[in-house]
Design a protein that fits this description.
The longest helix is centred in the last third of the chain and has 30 residues. The chain is built from 14 helices and five strands. The strands form two sheets. A three-stranded parallel beta sheet has the order 1-2-3. It has a two-stranded parallel sheet with strand order 4-5. The relative contact order is 0.15. The chain is globular. It is mostly helical and about 350 residues long. Helix 3 crosses helix 13, helix 10 packs antiparallel against helix 13 and helix 11 crosses helix 13. The protein binds tryptophanyl-5'AMP (TYM). Tryptophanyl-5'AMP binds next to strand 1, helix 1 and helix 7. Tryptophanyl-5'AMP (TYM) binds next to strand 1, helix 1 and helix 7.
Length: about 350
């Protein structure tokens, strides 16, 4: 995508402790992208309250997620780290997008259907409008690349649809003011970056279900705060099948638990699934799991330790979020001013 300044934006909800899916699906890619891009990483606290959050728990979770970003390798000097509610452009642009997006578009969102469940009438309006706020997060910075796990793909398609409709609906105003980037319009159509060998980490108890914070069983996921003992126990108890590991990737077809564990090994070691299978093809799960325990403990236990260290000083974390919010706002405010002018709002002070 030429024309737009290359900029990365992504975020996570501070709804409970982050897990291995968040880490391998997103966070490891965020860390890597710092070497090549200007990066903005957000703790999306406004998204969190689309479902009930105890206020004291929410504050704790915002700081914990911030600590997880930093402990995993996001550098608050190089990248912008902040919480969404401290930059008011997110709410403002989300409102404009509530008026750009169509009901029919939101009705197709599978995540709303899953989260609202059977009792749709009782879901918050915020949960329904959630994807519009997510589009606002990204486009408020004219971000061009969005590293996420596979489950966010549909939301990113909606983001592109919203950007395109805004560019079309206000094409004349954008052109008149010279605010378009070439033929591309005012907003870029951001690229989803769904990368690595584990874009969709599955439950350790059921290889057909996504690893998620909401699963009732703590054995279904590895939390970034788990200590070495907990990590080891969860991997030892992880569901497998009776066959030995295949030596090629296509041998994983129809074996969701095996595929998941191999993906996790690959993600943690920075290798491809193929390379992992070259090494372990023919092994029984007992041997493979022992190697996976060692690798997971080696990679994850230091993150938990660093998070504990950071969380002992909440003031330091709040300072990082505050400085990040100032930097984020410096990018967002001029873009938001242009949006308001394009839409036709009067600014008289
Ligand atoms: P959230 O908070 O549910 O998840 C944060 C990130 O973790 C990824 N992820 C996974 N990846 C692989 N396997 C899994 N089992 C797994 N579970 C979660 C998610 O794909 C995501 O990348 N709507 C977003 C937050 C958001 C956002 C944004 C993201 C708000 N605004 C703007 C990008 C850009 C969400 O709820 O992610």
């Amino acid at each position: 995508m030429s024309g737009f300044h290359q900029r990365v934006f992504s975020g996570m909800q501070p709804t409970s402790t982050l897990h291995l899916g968040n880490y391998l699906g997103a966070l490891t890619n965020w860390v890597a992208m710092q070497d090549t891009h200007e990066c903005i990483y957000c703790v999306v606290d406004m998204h969190a309250i689309t479902m009930w959050q105890d206020p004291a728990d929410l504050k704790r979770a915002i700081r914990e997620v911030t600590a997880a970003y930093i402990a995993a390798g996001v550098d608050p000097k190089r990248s912008i780290i902040f919480n969404q509610s401290q930059v008011h452009g997110h709410a403002e642009l989300a409102w404009v997008f509530n008026c750009v997006a169509r009901l029919g578009w939101l009705n197709r969102m599978t995540q709303f259907k899953e989260k609202a469940g059977k009792d749709r009438e009782n879901a918050s309006v915020g949960l329904y409008a959630y994807p519009n706020l997510m589009a606002a997060d990204i486009l408020l910075y004219k971000a061009t690349h969005v590293p996420v796990g596979e489950d966010q793909k549909q939301h990113l398609e909606l983001t592109r649809d919203i950007a395109q409709k805004f560019n079309n609906d206000f094409g004349a105003q954008i052109a008149e003011r010279g605010l378009g980037t070439g033929e591309l319009g005012f907003f870029p159509l951001p690229e989803p970056m769904i990368q690595g060998p584990a874009p969709r980490v599955m439950s350790l108890r059921d290889g057909t279900k996504k690893m998620s914070k909401s699963d009732a069983s703590d054995y279904s996921r590895i939390n970034l705060t788990d200590d070495a003992e907990a990590i080891a126990q969860k991997i030892r108890k992880a569901k497998t099948d009776p066959e030995a590991l295949p030596s090629e990737e296509k041998g994983l077809e129809g074996r969701p638990e095996a595929e998941n564990l191999v993906g996790i090994y690959a993600g943690l070691s920075g290798a491809s699934k193929d390379a992992v299978l070259k090494q372990f093809g023919g092994s029984q799960f007992s041997g493979f799991k022992a190697a996976l325990v060692d690798l997971a403990v080696e990679k994850l236990a230091p993150i938990a330790g660093e998070m504990r260290r950071l969380l002992a000083d909440p003031k330091h974390i709040d300072d990082i979020l505050g400085a990040g919010a100032d930097r984020a706002d410096a990018i967002a405010a001029p873009i938001m001013r242009e949006v308001k002018d394009i839409v036709g709002f009067v600014r008289s002070r």
